[in-house]
Amino acid sequence: MKRSGPQTRAVAGPAAPGPGAAPPPPDPARDPGRTERGPGRGAGATRPRLGFRHRLQRTDASVSPYLYVAPFFLLFLGFMLFPLGYTFYVSLNDWNLIGAEARSFTGLENYRTLLADPNFWNALRNTFSIWLLSTVPQLLLALGLAHLLNARLRGKTLFRMGVLVPNVASLVAVTIIFAQLFGRDFGLINWLLGLAGVGPIDWQAGTASSHIAIAVMVVWRWTGYHALIYLAAMQAIPRELYEAASLDGAGSFQMLRSITIPALRPVIIFSVLISTIYGMQIFAEPLLFDPKPGSVTGGAGRQFQTLTVYLYEQGFREFDFGYAATIGWVMFLLVVAVALVNYALTRRISSTR
Amino acid sequence: MARSRVPRLGRVGPLTYPLLILVLLLSVFPLYWTGVVASQTNRAIGQTPPPMLPGGNLLDNIGRVFEQTNFLKALVNSLVVATAITVSVLVFCSLAGFAFAKLRFRGRQAMMLIVVATMMVPTQLGVIPLYLMIGELGWSGRLPAVIVPTMVTAFGVFWMRQFISQVVPDEMIDAARVDGCHTARICWHVILPAIRPAAAVLGLFTFMQAWNDFFWPLVVLTPDNPTVQVALSTLAAGYFQDYALILAATAVATLPVLVVFAVLGRQIVGGIMEGAVKQ
Asked: What pTM was estimated for this model as a whole?
């Protein structure tokens, strides 16, 4: 199956800026080399009177594309590309808004400090842990859910919309609601656990417990979305394959294993990529889960501070811009690494077809 | 032996509906819970067992939200911001998407590559320079700071370009050119009518995303001129024991998106699923 060039089916997750509503997965970037035939040559060929019009059309065809792209590209250049590059420059400086000393160029010093910074590694571990705890259940549940939704249902649309509802509520709202549900004294979850004889858990205080709570939020929010894209892929599988397998005596689990899952591999890889990009940038949930108002440390012991929260703390509480920019760039490199791995996997899988 | 021709995997099993209903309940419960807490008094919430049904205090609590905070301003701000961003994204990204899909110009491929690559970049990366720029421009704490940087999105262009290149046949454009149309006319008469479905979905997504955005407005706005999400977080930090108040505000903040979703949810679902199938 033809895959186009070096672009992965990547989307800036739900971010642009900041995690928010879910975008639909994009189509593979088609080969942009499609030719567009030039302006009608016939118009000016035989009638000299239309010579001016012909020239106008030629000018129009060669100049107007730039006009159409210009507003987009100027805004994009100014507010998207330039900041990305400039952040690297900032990270090479000791740049602090507070403090009397002038900004000074320090080269890679910030990076060296970062790599030796225990808070950075803590944030990285937290980010990774939350990512793992949320991605794996999310995708498994989404597969199961998609399978259920694939049946011949009545009220199909209702169910599909229903599983997407968690995705439209804002992150802030979701975090606040779940923080209340996970509250130590009055939270519903501790009350339910109490009914089962399990003592009240201080969800925000522990490392594992806070990670689990945040992972639950992420799973709640995203499972429906992933289920829908798996569902779409499942529905694209031709029924004849199943019928043939059924005639050959395959059981339904075997059909799942040999037909459904292989056909879903590209979508699964895409969905892992999306949830990874999102998982690495997770911000609102760890920020607002902290019971201490206005806290940016992700809990008193930084037990659930993620990379983006750390960036925010360094950049907009400590106003150490150089350092925050460094964190940003290291995050970016991590995302690139993950995307490359994802791309390599995609390549390998498509070549075994 | 009667073997049904319906493959088993498509069949509705005995557990299907119960499980789906369970999933539906779980999906909706936290939002329902918000309504419950928002309509109770704080004393009622603190009881064991906690109340499971809505109480009668909703209007009271909402009234308090608007009296004690600048939530109304936040709502208006969010509406302005989200609308401005949506309109701008639709206009500029459609134009650019059209150009990338159907027009020929030098640098087209390179530009498109850059756009696609950017979609993968975490947006937090550019936050520091953007913050400095906003300071220079004098927009600190004001709405343009939130609107202008997001007036175009890489995703928007990508989405429109894919749609236009698939839905509008080259022949139609060639025919229009042979008829002597210049590009603007082609755009107006051929492209614009064709992109309505894609524009609808993109508009919905952009609006919801702009409404729900948190990180950037948090960085660049102040608590006295917030968007809804920032106001909500400030509220939660300030009145952190007053759950009735906080969740009432949450309910008000979430309601617009839910309404949009209730009305247009089908298109959103369709947009997501169609995008996946084209893989």
From this structure: 0.81
